[in-house]
Here is the input.
Amino acid sequence: MDKFVVKWKRKNLEDDSIKQPFAKRRRISCEFGFRKPMLDYLKKNANPKVLLKLMQVSKYFLFKEFPFIVVKDLKHEDDKWNIDLENITKKLWITESFVIEENFSPFNDIMLVSSIVPKIAACDITDLWMIGQQISLQEFKLLNADKIKDFHFRESMITDSNGDILSVENILSFLLKVLSFS
Here is the structure.
């Protein structure tokens, strides 16, 4: 009888605030099959597309504020961007088109695409307009070249890692779904 009373007292004297984190941790690890540090690592380091899918699957991966700025069309015309890129602190997620129209002249910046690529987290574009630009092959691949359907390429060049300019045939080999090339 004494054992029963001791167990009952011990059970009732335990603080609920101590139990709660363990229960929460157990629930999270049971829900996903991973421990909390692994889930925190995924939340912090997942690429944007995977992170969006994780947010759709579980509340655990939701953020108070979405970590990316989603832009439907990113355009540079008449020496200005359609959004204020100077004051953004988050990376961009471009969903439809990327247009840079710079007429080729010694005064225009031919490296605009190269200056924007570090600010891009995800790129799902289907339309790419590059006029008067010079980019590397790695930057071209980061723009999701294999999904581009409409590609306008005038007064521009793409260079490989050696600095050699790619031919049109080589550029077309990266554009797997292109329907329009000009």
In short: The chain has two domains: 2-59, 68-181. The radius of gyration is 26 Å.
